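Much of our argument rests on the idea that a fold can be written as discrete symbols. The record that follows shows the chain in one-letter code together with its fold in token form.
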Amino acid sequence: MVAHYYAELVSFFARSLNSRDAAADVVQESYARVFAMQSRELAVRDLRALLFRTGKNIVIDDARRRAAEARMLETLAVVGADEVPSAERQVQGRQQLVLLSRRLQAMPRKRREVFVLVRIYGFSHAEAAAHMSISEAAIEKHVVRAVCDCMGLKS
């Protein structure tokens, strides 16, 4: 079974990733996830389709992770070495971070998840709606309320 789709999967992902080694890694991870699903006795009707979908999800997740890392690095680059914040400013920043963390934890679960998907991971409203199986309008409302919660405003 493993060899049956392996070459096709590697060729497909090598074209989109421009790297045969990266494609082989994606295919290996796809097989591992599918085998894990099968070990939980989940029925798989179309193994080929599942392997392709799993691989695509891995590529998308990796692209999102790299984009989030790039945004963090850009943010860190904004503060140059000569603009290092004072000790007082660092303490104030930590206090604000603790306050934000508390406000996030106080949010209803779905509102917090929407906020994290959209504001932290960079999902569009449409992507977040599809991911959470709710409407885009609901996503927009959750984001607005979450921002209000983070700012300490009553929504």
